[in-house]
Amino acid sequence: MTEVNMSQNKIIRISSTATKSCHNKSVVVDRALIDAKIFDARQSSRKRDVHIFHSGDQDPLQRMLNAIQPGSYITPHRHHIPPKPESIVLLNGILGYVSFNDDGSLLEKDSALLDIKRDKYGLDILSDVWHTIFALEADTVIFEVKPGPYDSSTNDKGLTSKISA
Question: What is the rounded distance in angstroms from the CA atom of residue 142 to the CA atom of residue 159?
């Protein structure tokens, strides 16, 4: 793990796709942290990189920055078992959000475009809603929060085969 100091925030790389804050009480999300995540996402073959604020997968509240470049693919998914809502706040760039019916058809009326210049800052997604997000502008960064614990086997990703090209 590599260590980098950013103002009052000690940052460690925990995987090829994520960094983590090591703070005891609080940490400020500043321009330096957002710029670092943008840099990491630009370098990533997945075109995105996450920065985690929670202490681990078992935390009851998962909080993170997600820097996403255009062309990054986030599989349509839902937080189904156990049901988990999630909230997203746009910090930089432009983000597209698309939701789907259980059969894979588009729920156009429930899709959204987040763009600070258009006064669209965030969204709240109820549990059990099929959805995906994507960057529509370079250097898009969001703050995400959802209940934990995180278990990759509970993210239902079965919709991909139902979505027609």
Answer: 24
Domain boundaries, the chain: 3-162
CATH superfamily of 3-162: Jelly Rolls (2.60.120.10)
Count CA within 13 A, CB hemisphere, residue 40.
24
- Do 160 and 75 meet the contact criterion of CB atoms below 8 Å apart? yes
Asked if residue 63 lies in contact with residue 54, where contact means CB atoms within 8 angstroms, the answer is yes
To which H or E segment does residue 21 belong? strand 18-22
Record the pTM: 0.87
List the structure tokens of 12.
């460690």
Averaged pLDDT, groups of 10, the chain, 165 residues long: 55 94 90 97 97 91 97 92 93 97 90 97 95 97 92 61 45
**How would you classify residue 71: left for phi > 0, otherwise alpha for psi between -120 and 50, otherwise beta?**
left
